[in-house]
Specification:
Blueprint: E1 10-13, H1 23-32, E2 36-40, E3 42-46, E4 49-52, H2 58-69, E5 85-90, E6 93-100, E7 111-112, E8 115-123, E9 126-129, H3 132-141, H4 161-175, H5 185-191, E10 195-197, E11 206-208, H6 210-216, H7 219-225, E12 231-235, E13 246-249, H8 260-273, H9 290-307, E14 317-321, E15 325-331, H10 338-343, H11 352-360, H12 370-380, E16 387-390, E17 394-400, H13 413-424, E18 427-428, H14 430-437, H15 441-453, E19 457-460, E20 467-470, H16 474-493
Parallel strand pairs: 1-2, 12-14
Antiparallel strand pairs: 2-6, 3-4, 5-6, 7-8, 8-9, 10-11, 12-13, 14-15, 15-17, 16-17, 18-20, 19-20
Helix pairs in contact: 6-11, 8-9, 9-12, 14-15
């Protein structure tokens, strides 16, 4: 058995006759991070020096594990099923392999012994108690609709009425509903769902929601409730540049009353300026709609960052416009999987009021539509597929302005030419390379082998039927699967 070093997803533990006590720390850590596997029966005398010791009474250990999983006084959440427990024989010794699933956002934090303070996270190959700010985030993040809290001691005076007027004009324009025109601010905000009645108050007072404050508020009023509130946009040539060409930032003298709505309107205009005006052919070799498609994608990503941010964080929402790509980063982990985001399934709103206000004026459409639009625009225009970077408490979406072959650094001109060829023709053989580039058999095989070693090219099949293709990102694989299922569905419906 080739024993991989312990890491963020793998832990070995010695276990002879009983379940080791520190198993539950690892259980909590894996559950609160990204899931993982524990293998019982392996010792570690020195760092990364593992020995297969085996377990003596595997049935007893498994029974103890299952019993404890059902004891809510010991562990807050059950994340192991019987099929996740596998018995292994290695070197004539018994091992137990246990898969621990990552907890959903509404199950976190997973804690021990009935005490929230006994919550752990996984970092590299170790289990560590969560820090106070991490625990606060997990608890707050376990709830949906974080922005519908009713605010005490806030009023319309804490809102920027110019932004409300601009929003009202947009609403009337997009809905043709002129009844909003002459309503006072409080009535208008109540009618669009930004102000709500406090049903717990016998006087049934109307109060601002936190979503209303974030969307329309004056900066000082927002920061009284959300001290870490920060919205940033930068245009730079590349990520290594220290100097920015354009900056929009809440708190700057040029933007003294920045809120979500004013940030959105200002940044959307800047994003459009950052889209190159160039001719791109689509896959049918007709004039493509590069500019309009990319505009749809960046608009969706901007709205996604603002709707799903965790505003109690000290981290900013940061939007970057580089020469080659746009990057949208917000505090708050993505509440759905990459598959669900790309397919548009199972949308879960972190901020339902903010989402509602974007949808009211048609800025955001139906829930869950953003991901499919972002990926469709890239595929349609033959651009590098967007990256989704899911952090522990951050989400980053990178939308490329260029195709994959133009993003390659550290490759020879010949290697770049073959990669560009792979982009254009999905699968190819050694004979295809020899014929297209006039290479000898030796040279063609040598370059393909080097690209395989650099993990750019994948081999498909064996022997004479061997083909090669560009190595796909996880996002690309998910999107292609979506396209295949859609095509299959269309055929079945004919």
């Amino acid at each position: 058995m080739n024993l991989e070093n312990e890491n963020v997803h793998l832990e070995y533990k010695t276990a002879k006759n009983c379940l080791p006590k520190d198993f539950w720390r690892t259980y909590s850590a894996f559950a609160n991070t990204d899931g993982g596997t524990v293998i019982l029966g392996i010792s570690e005398e020195k760092k990364f020096n593992y020995q297969i010791e085996g377990v003596i009474n595997s049935d007893k250990i498994v029974n103890e594990l299952i019993t404890t999983l059902h004891n809510s006084n010991k562990v807050s959440c059950k994340l192991i099923d019987e099929q996740d427990i596998v018995h292994i024989i290695e070197d004539n010794k018994k091992l137990i392999k246990i898969k621990i699933h990552a907890a959903n956002f509404d199950q976190k934090p997973v804690y021990l012994n009935g005490n929230l303070q006994n919550s752990y996270i996984r970092e590299n190959d170790g289990d560590f108690k969560v820090k106070p700010e991490q625990l606060k985030y997990m608890i707050a993040n376990s709830y949906t609709h974080l922005d519908n809290q009713l605010l005490e001691n806030y009023s319309v005076k804490d809102l920027n009425t110019q932004d409300i007027d601009q929003y009202r004009e947009l609403l009337i324009k997009n809905t043709n509903d002129t009844s909003f025109k002459d309503q006072n601010y409080e009535t208008f905000l109540f009618n669009i769902g930004a102000i709500r009645i406090d049903r717990k108050d016998s006087k049934q007072k109307k109060k601002l929601t936190t979503g209303c404050l974030l969307f329309f508020g004056k900066l000082n009023a927002i920061m009284d409730r959300f001290p870490g509130f920060q919205l940033d946009f930068y245009r730079k040539k590349n990520v290594l540049e220290e100097e920015w060409v354009t900056r929009i930032s809440s708190g700057d003298m040029n933007f003294p009353e920045m809120n979500i709505f004013s940030f959105y309107t200002l940044v959307l205009e800047q994003l459009e300026r950052g889209i190159p005006d160039k001719f791109i052919q689509d896959r049918n070799f007709t004039r493509g709609s590069y500019h309009s498609d990319l505009m749809i994608a960046v608009k969706e990503a901007l709205v996604n960052s603002l709707m799903h941010a965790y505003y109690s964080s000290d981290r900013p929402i940061a939007i970057y416009d580089y020469d080659d790509y746009f990057e949208f980063s917000n505090p708050g982990d993505m509440r759905v999987s990459k598959e669900e985001f790309i397919h548009g399934n199972n949308p879960i709103a972190r901020n339902s009021i903010i989402s509602l206000l974007f949808r009211k004026v048609g800025i955001a459409e139906k829930a869950g539509s953003g991901g499919p639009r972002i990926f469709k625009s890239a595929y349609k225009n033959n651009l590098r597929i967007p990256d989704i970077i899911k952090g522990r408490d951050t989400t980053t979406i990178r939308i490329w302005k260029i195709n994959l072959s133009k993003t390659l650094v550290g490759f020879s001109e010949t290697e770049k030419a073959i990669i560009k060829y792979a982009v254009d023709c999905q699968q190819f053989s050694i004979d295809n390379i020899k014929a297209h580039f006039k290479f000898s058999d030796y040279k063609a095989r040598k370059i393909i082998r080097e690209l395989e070693n650099k993990k750019v090219i994948d081999r498909v099949g064996n022997g004479k039927a061997t083909k090669y293709q560009l190595k796909e990102s996880q996002e690309m694989g998910i999107f292609k699967n979506k396209l295949y299922l859609r095509q299959l569905e269309d055929k079945l419906n004919k």
